Amino acid sequence: MELLSDDLLVDSYYMAVQLHLESEFIRLLLNEMERRGINPDSYRIGA
């Protein structure tokens, strides 16, 4: 996860949700965003 850029991490999260992927995978993405201090909603709006 550490190799992903912030942009790619957020995009991966939104794609995983859209494709209804495993909830555990989505949780991993959310945990990593939280660790980095990224709010996925405000990150996309600010981009």
Automatic annotation (TrEMBL):
Coiled coil: none annotated. It holds the Pfam family Sda. Keywords: Protein kinase inhibitor. InterPro entries: Sda, Sda_sf. GO terms for molecular function: protein kinase inhibitor activity. The keyword Chloroplast does not apply. The keyword Magnesium does not apply. This is Sporulation histidine kinase inhibitor Sda. It comes from Paenibacillus terricola. The lineage of its organism: Bacteria, Bacillati, Bacillota, Bacilli, Bacillales.
